[in-house]
Amino acid sequence: MSQDPSRSSAGRTPFWLRVARTARLHADTYEEVEADPSSILQATGIVLVSGLAGVLGAFLRIQLGTPLPGSALPLPWHLALIGLEPLVVWIVGCAFAYMVGATFLKGPETETDYRELLRTTGFAFAPGSLAFFAWLPPAALGLGIIALAKLWVLLACIVGIRQALDFTTGRAIGTLGVSFVLLWLMLWGLTITPLPL
């Protein structure tokens, strides 16, 4: 969807309200973000805050004596991966979503570009900041909060993809599913490829 040139910057929704509305899966706000090229900085900030929240939550969890689940990596590497995960998923996942949604699953109304998809899905990462509360005891509560944050981001990404690509929720779910598989295959391939010496 292209930006309406008649829309003034004064007519934009304030940032905090955009974040709240996109977290509530408000479709019209995703449309507004899609049409506002300047919102890419806001979207980037949301993704970075989501990663930072995950790092702080994991660090506080360790400080309180609760081990991080399933990691054989040294702590600094594990925290770095937690912090980078949202950024990698956002940038690379969006590339796959654009490739799949704008070509193979393209609907009759689909007209978008990669940057529009980055903007809408970047805002979809706002609930990821809940990962900061992963330190709350007991350990099962922290894991539940992380799971809730990831599920909420997933649902918000479906809405963001749907609005950016102007098609049905079913196509958005299919696009997200195929993109996730492609991203997983790429990351898995990187882990089994021997590094040159």
- Tally of separate helices: 7
Mean pLDDT: 90
Molecular shape: globular
How widely separated are the two ends? 47 Å
The tally of domains stands at 1
What is the share of helical residues?
Answer: 55-70%
Radius of gyration: 18 Å
Q: Kindly name the structural category.
A: mainly alpha
Q: Strand tally, please?
A: 0
Low-confidence stretches: 1-10
Estimate the strand proportion.
under 5%
SSE ordering: HHHHHHH
Structure notes:
With 197 residues, the protein is an all-alpha fold. The chain has one domain. Helices cover 69% and strands 0% of the residues. The chain contains seven helices and no strands. The chain has helices at 15-23, 27-35, 39-63, 75-104, 114-124, 139-165, 169-192. Helix 2 packs across helix 5 (114-124). The longest helix has 30 residues, at 75-104. It is globular. The termini are far apart. The relative contact order is 0.15. Residues 1-10 have low confidence and may be disordered.
